[in-house]
Specification:
Order of helices and strands: HHHHHHHHEEH
Helix content: over 70%
Structural class: mainly alpha
Strand content: under 5%
Number of helices: 9
Largest sheet: 2 strands, antiparallel
Shape: globular
Strand order of the largest sheet: 1-2
Radius of gyration: 18 Å
Number of strands: 2
Length: about 200
């Protein structure tokens, strides 16, 4: 497992701890115990995932199944219990999945997530709100793919000094990212986006 993947998991885990944990505690206070348990499970799973990587006992398929099922269950419960407020959790979930999952798994999860969102939103919200929610979710997903593509296939300015660059490329089994320390010169081309999508 690459060090970049560990760093990504650590950062997402810290973000979940800071931003999801207070809401998990609030769910228990508001007697939404099932929602609290599911949100707490996500917060606890990510550090356990990092710990298992560090000990050399990382099982990607199990981690994928546990993480994705917890996210799906949490999102469905959030919409059921909190309507529009619960739907807002879809946005950080989509962004996190783009950084956590390999490309092929991401497309499968993205399709299921969109179907779940579509069915739950269509049944729960007023039509005008449902249409806006679905369009914004698809937009966030597309923009996330474009941003990942921009990072992964960005041509670095040829005028940039070599010492300013620190590039780590993850292997095919990991999330497809290239992380430049030098942020200048990011240019998204249609060709790079199509190459990332493998169209």
């Amino acid at each position: 497992m690459s060090s970049l993947r560990r760093k990504l998991l650590l950062n997402i885990s810290l973000a979940a701890l800071c931003f999801v944990m207070p809401f998990a505690i609030n769910n228990f206070i508001q007697t939404r115990c099932l929602l609290g348990i599911r949100s707490l499970a996500m917060v606890v799973f990510l550090p356990l995932d990092i710990w298992s990587m560090g000990r050399g006992r990382y099982y990607p398929l199990i981690a994928f199944l546990v993480l994705v099922s917890e996210i799906f269950i949490f999102l469905c419960l959030a919409i059921s219990k909190q309507d529009v407020i619960g739907f807002l959790w879809f946005y950080p979930a989509i962004l996190a999945l783009y950084f956590l999952l390999p490309k092929r798994q991401l497309w499968i999860v993205n399709a299921f997530l969109s179907i779940i969102a579509l069915s739950k939103v269509w049944d729960t919200f007023a039509r005008s709100v449902a249409i806006r929610a679905i369009v914004t979710l698809i937009t966030v997903s597309i923009l996330s793919a474009i941003f990942i593509s921009a990072i992964a296939f960005s041509p670095i300015c040829s005028s940039a000094p070599q010492r300013d660059l620190e590039i780590e490329v993850m292997d095919e089994s990991d999330t497809m990212l290239v992380v430049p320390a030098f942020a200048g010169g990011l240019k998204l081309t249609v060709q790079s986006l199509f190459a990332w999508l493998q169209l």
